[in-house]
Design goal:
The chain is an alpha+beta fold. The strands form two sheets. Strands 1, 2, 3, 4, 5, 6, 7 and 8 form an eight-stranded antiparallel β-sheet that branches. A two-stranded antiparallel sheet has the order 9-10. A hairpin with a 6-residue loop joins strand 2 and strand 3. Helix 1 packs parallel to helix 4.
Length: 260
């Protein structure tokens, strides 16, 4: 499967700010924007923006098992592992296992990252952006996928947000359609084995599943994955093209639709 594609647009213009999201665990220090991604292999192209004064020293350096390329687009960034200030135009092609970071910046910095999880050594499964898919960002993916590099989302728990939907980067991917299909197959299996007997029972089952889904998503996402409430609620902004709310909606009404 090829990486997602999109026509020309400017990720650094002010009107694109709403597409940037805080990096999990680095709120107030860094933001990220996935430009392109292969939801099958997990390969992605992403911009990470370190805000002025950002310092990730308390997180230590990072390594990961796959290669990646980095390019400093603007500003400057200090990489403690190399004891070097990286300025606009600096480029590196990191081999698997290379230590990098922690990072700090005084004036802010924008970094372009191209990562290749599909290049993992034999026997090591790639981190996929969707739990099962999310990523950051993404395979529980992505859900439950961990990205080790600073500037990457640490965990994708309940949502899979991939780079392009309806032609605009930063929106949900066709993972939502796959999830809806998977839920329908789940309903088919469950309600064939244990048929619903009334409309009331169908709504009771749907409501119970909806509550359990939301409790797990927000509880696990906040207290275990460390995501902020703002990040978790961000996936429910339908007016900004986020389609994830359709999945909990389907969980709720699915039993009734199947019963009918």
């Amino acid at each position: 499967m090829a990486k997602s594609t999109v026509t020309y647009w400017n990720a650094l213009r002010p009107e694109s700010q709403e597409r940037w999201t805080p990096v999990a665990g680095l709120d107030g220090m860094a933001e990220e924007l996935t430009l392109s991604m292969d939801s099958l292999t997990g390969e992605y192209t992403r911009l990470t923006r370190f805000l002025p004064g950002a310092d990730t020293s308390r997180f230590g350096g990072k390594t990961h098992a796959y290669p990646e390329e980095v390019f400093i687009v603007s500003g400057r960034l200090y990489d403690q592992a190399f004891d070097r200030w990286l300025e606009a135009g600096c480029y590196a092609s990191r081999p698997p296992g290379e230590l990098h970071g922690p990072f700090k910046t005084d004036e802010g910095c924008v970094v372009l990252e191209v990562s290749f999880p599909s290049a993992l050594p034999p026997g090591i499964a790639p981190a996929r952006r969707c739990p099962g898919r999310r990523p950051g960002v993404g395979p529980i993916p992505d859900r439950l996928v961990r990205h080790d590099g600073v500037g990457h989302r640490q965990w994708r728990i309940a949502r899979c947000r991939l780079p392009c939907a309806n032609g605009r980067p930063g929106g949900p991917s066709d993972f939502h359609g796959d999830s809806a299909a998977a839920l329908w197959r789940l309903f088919l299996g469950l309600f064939t084995a244990w048929p619903l007997v009334s409309v009331r029972q169908a709504w009771e089952v749907g409501t119970l599943w909806l509550v359990m889904t939301l409790v797990f998503e927000f509880g696990f996402g906040h207290w275990v994955a460390g995501q902020s409430w703002r990040q978790l609620l961000g996936a429910y902004r339908l007016h900004k093209g986020q389609l994830w709310p359709l999945i909990p909606l389907w969980v709720w009404i699915g039993p009734y639709c199947f019963f009918r």
